[in-house]
């Protein structure tokens, strides 16, 4: 740790790598793995732990005020979520011109790509994946966070059988009874009230999107398709969809019970888990030791075994209790806090 910190400030090659965009903080930056409207996403490796990470890079100069607001929400919502099926946030690094969001890397691509290239998933597989997504959304809603952009493009495979929900760019904090008014998300996944009402309840909008997502996964294409937004809006308002016969009765029932025009008529997440189709599914639980910078326990606060193990591994990397205390007292993001998150998460994943 000391060597790396020293190098970043004094080593010529290292400084050149930083200038040329090959390194940031404790991360080596590698190839681009994706891009968005305002961002570029690159693969990174943590130089101390060697963990792979995804690094979302945003150009501050091109960023309008609105995008900055969305970004700070994206970071704060991601930071408060700790679930095996949600992309984990590790660290944010800000330079004069750029913002780097360091997060968990899901290496096996988007659910969208899997279904688009291989076709619909067998129902047994779809069920296993849908249960993980439901569990992730339950965790968000329990924390009063709504995603507002749930779609197959934002569900990533970490391996053949584990998925992670990501892209919290439109997420927001929202109490169950709180009305919202900004149209967010992708039109084919949009609930009817988003087109018709001036305000809506966030959780019902997420649940509708889950119905569209389930349809997409078991059928292989979206339920509402149209060439113009006007026609799409009409399809959604009429709930004009056909479910092919190959879809089992229990799954059809579930899709129809989610995609109900009246938000309060839609099944709740709990009710979804109790439907016949979801019978016997496994719902991964939220991680036991949540931690953002504010909740990393100090040593005198009797940390849990996971936190003690994290510290033991950090000591081996040259990060002492003194470094940790200093980072915690500073109350701002630092490479020590970032490394802490990566190591803690690795321990939780190994478990
Ligand atoms: N954690 C991750 N692991 C693996 N790949 C990722 C990860 N995050 C993003 N990607 C890839 O990078 C691409 C761009 O992501 P990003 O969040 O920047 O933009 P987007 O959501 O696709 O677009 P928009 O700008 O409209 O939000 C994604 O489509 C995905 O393929």
From TrEMBL:
It comes from the Eukaryota. PROSITE patterns: PROTEIN_KINASE_ATP (PS00107), PROTEIN_KINASE_DOM (PS50011), PROTEIN_KINASE_ST (PS00108). InterPro entries: Kinase-like_dom_sf, Prot_kinase_dom, Protein_kinase_ATP_BS, Ser/Thr_kinase_AS. GO terms for cellular component: cytoplasm. Pfam families: Pkinase (PF00069). It is an enzyme of class 2 (transferase). One of its GO terms (biological process) is microtubule cytoskeleton organization. Residues 27-278 form the Protein kinase domain. It catalyses: L-seryl-[protein] + ATP = O-phospho-L-seryl-[protein] + ADP + H(+); L-threonyl-[protein] + ATP = O-phospho-L-threonyl-[protein] + ADP + H(+). ATP binds at residue 56. Keywords: ATP-binding, Kinase, Membrane, Nucleotide-binding, Serine/threonine-protein kinase, Transferase, Transmembrane, Transmembrane helix. Its EC number is 2.7.11.1. One of its GO terms (molecular function) is ATP binding. The chain crosses the membrane at residues 201-224. The keyword Flavoprotein does not apply. Belongs to the protein kinase superfamily. This is non-specific serine/threonine protein kinase. The gene is 20196181.
